[in-house]
Structures are given as C-alpha cells and as structure tokens.
Amino acid sequence: MNAPAPFTGSFTQQEPIPEDGIAAAVEVMRSGRLHRYNTVGEEAGATAALEAAYAQWQGSAYCLACASGGYAMTTALRALGIGPGDTVLTNGWTLAPVPGAISAVGATPALVEITPDLVLDLDHLRARLSERPAALLLSNMRGHLGDMEAISAICAEADVPLIEDCAHTMGATWNGRRSGSFGAFGCFSTQTYKHMNSGEGGLLVSDDAELMSRAILLSGSYMLYERHGAAPPAAVFEPLREAMPNISGRMDNLRAAILLPQIETLEANIDRWNARHDRIADRLRGLHGVYVPSRPAGEGYVGSSLQFLLPDAGADRIAAVVSEAGALGVELKWFGAERPAGFTSAHRSWRYMPMQDMPRTDAILAGLLDLRIPLTFSLGDCDHIAEILSYAVRDALEKAA
Ligand SMILES: *Cc1c(COP(=O)(O)O)cnc(C)c1O
Q1: How many helices (H) and strands (E) does the chain have?
Q2: Whose CA is closest to atom 6 on ligand 1?
Q3: 90 CA distance to ligand 1 centroid (A)?
Q4: How far apart are CA 173 and CA 165, in angstroms?
C-alpha cells in the first residue's frame, strides 16, 4: 500500500472576517467609541445591535453579549445563586473552561459519564441528580447533542436547573429547536475556533426575565441596562439593581461590529461545515475497526469537527495512527493520550477538583480521536484527509495483525 501524498493545509486556519465586518470595525475605531455604553444621541451601539440580532436569530427572549464563553457560564451560575458549597454536574468529557467555570464560582464539579456517542449517559445522570446538585452545566461537547427533551425532563423532575454550554452547537437543533433554548441559560463562545469569530467573546441567552436581569447586572452594566439590545423591561431590574455585584465582563463595540455580519452567514456556513464533515465521516464509517458516533434523527448538527473511535485498537496502535496521520499532515487529537497536549479535556488533568472514578468515560476516551474542520478546507481537501486517515488506520491495524 503506497502512502498518500501529505496534506499541507492548516487545521487552525479560519476564514477571514467578512468585508462588511472589517468596514464596521474600522468605523467603530474611527469613532473612538469602543465601550458599549459610549454612545451618542439615539445611537444603539454595535454591542446592543448584536444582542438584538442574536436573540432574534436564536429565538430567545433575551441576550447578553460578554467577554467569553467561560464568562457566560460563570455568569449563568452566579445568576442562579450558585456558589461555595454547591455541587454542579457536568460531562465527564468536556473542555477545561467548563469545570473551570464551576470552580470559578466556588462550586465543586461532579462528573457524569458519557456514552460512545459522546453524549451524557442518562442513567448516570439520574443517579447523580439524586445527590441534589445545584445545577447541570451540560456541555454539548464537540457538537454532539443528547436527547434534549429527555435531559430537560429529567432535570425538571429533579428540580435542578439546566445550563447549556453551546460553544460547539451554535446553530445546531434538536427536533427543530435551537441548542441553547432548553434550559435556564444557553452559553455561546465567539472565540476564534467556534462558529463565529471575534477572537474572544461570548453570548448568553435566556427566556427568563429575572435571571437575565441578574446576569446583565453581574456583567457590569453600571445601571445602564436600558441601553441593552435584548434585555428585560426596566421594571424587572428595579428590585435587583443593588443586589448584584459588578463582575465586569462586557463585550466591546469592536468585537460586536465584527460579529454582527457573521450572524447572516451562519446558516450557509452550517451547510458548508456539514458537507465537509460528512465527506470525511462517510469514508471513515466504512472502515473496519472504526466507530463513528451516531447522529440521531432529531439532531441538526454543525460538523465543525469530527470524532471517531478505534474501540479495540489499544494504545500502541492508536499512537501509531496518530503519528502516521501526523507525518502526512493530518493533526489528530487523541483524548486517551497519557499527557494532555495543547488542549485539556481529560478529567484526570483537572487536579483542582476532587478526583472522580469515571470508568466508562475513560474507556471511551482511550479510543477517541478528533479533528477540526475549518471552512478554509475545500471538499477536495476533505477527500485528501479521508484518504490519509483510511491509510493510517488500515496500516496501523494491519501491521499489528
Ligand atoms: C471554547 C469552549 C468554551 C468556552 O469558550 P471561551 O470563549 O474560550 O471561554 C466552553 N466550552 C467548550 C466545550 C469549549 O470548547
């Protein structure tokens, strides 16, 4: 078997900011009014305009633009009154900012096992809910949505609030309903590697007027909440005005100006991501020894990254696949690697929280591989990547046989 030609594209290269976003950003800089509350006359400002546009696109009553996805999550937790002494459930496999957000408010993360389809194990969720946690911070990790109706019903029955981490599911749907609309809050990131790019940034959505008023006050609104783009009426803030600490984490007009035109391209970009994702996934699905997580009928996913498992390969052969693909220019992340490198998604590397026994999650992560799919890749690039992955997998598994 001859090795395919190496791939030379970059897995971290995103598309440029749309020209109208660049023009709007230059306009904000020329005005000098970068702070969201630095407006003149009737001008709403780009941050308020972004909140209005995103709330409408998302179908949520309220939206707060803030500094990062991590900030959106800590603000959601604080608005729910969660703090020291509380326990918050989250996925056994997620990215470090998720347990980090729980720890940031002084609460303790408690992990829920995942399934080979990379979503929460509902039996383990039920068992952990009986321990009376303060909330479930559900991470739709790598864009995989669990049965959202079942998860919200299980949380509602246990009387535990649900917060959704939608860093990888902006634009995704479950039975036609947008990810981020199932719980008390939905949290989004506009960091460079997510679905909209402002370098850093976050969006917090909710349909609950009182919770969103708390969140806006927490974000550092200097009593200027009436200048927001998708905020509850002023009367809702009245009893809360002096009850919330100011924990500054506002978005600025420059980032908002960059983001605003990106909302219009989201829908088309979802199709572009999925075309690329499916092109590689379909090839991998046919390979012996490879499991590609199933996509349930109700899930409208956004394939901005791709996961596959080599469930029975063992560490040596998986290491061989990673190194062979890497030598041919295809960067794979391996979640079962001994030492987290460049990312931290292994719960054992979160040493600031109590160690937790997660045998099922660990067994899945041991065989789990992941690659990013930036929109700068063409469909031809995706065929090339699929070719390299097929070669690396076959070669490593056959050599060992
Ligand atoms: C990126 C990310 C976040 C948080 O995003 P930041 O904006 O970087 O704080 C949260 N959850 C997951 C799963 C992420 O990948």
Answers
A1: 12, 13
A2: 69
A3: 14
A4: 14
pTM for the predicted model, two decimal places:
0.96
Q: What atom of ligand 1 comes closest to residue 68's alpha carbon?
A: 7
Residue 400 has pLDDT above 70, yes or no: no
Q: Is 57 helix (H, G, I), strand (E, B) or coil?
A: helix
Angle between the N-to-C axes of helices 379-400 and 253-285, in degrees from 0 to 180, rounded to the nearest 10: 50
Per-residue pLDDT, 145:
98
Per residue in 314-326, pLDDT (tens digit) is 999 999 999 999 9
- Residue 109 one-letter amino acid: P
Residue whose CB lies within 8 A of the most ligand 1 atoms, among 74, 191, 197, for a mutation test: 191
And the tokens for 288?
A: 């012996």
Asked if residue 141 has its Cβ within 6 Å of ligand 1, the reply is: yes
Find out whether 149 and 125 touch, Cβ atoms under 8 Å: no
Residue nearest to atom 1 of ligand 1 (CA): 167
Q: Region 256-283: what's the mean pLDDT?
A: 98
How far is the centre of ligand 1, averaged over its atoms, from the C-alpha of 41 (Å)?
36
Atom of ligand 1 nearest to the CA of 141: 13
Return the ligand 1 atom nearest residue 189 CA.
7
Contacts of 363 (CB under 8 A, 6+ apart): none
pLDDT tens digits, one per residue of 196-212 = 999 999 999 999 999 99
Task: From residue 255, give the alpha-carbon distance in Å to each of 49, 101, 119, 228, 259.
Answer: 12, 22, 32, 16, 6
Residue whose CA lies nearest to ligand 1 atom number 11: 167
pLDDT confidence of residue 340: 58
Helix then strand then coil, in percent of the chain rounded to 5, is: 40, 15, 45
Q: Whose CA is nearest to atom 4 of ligand 1?
A: 69
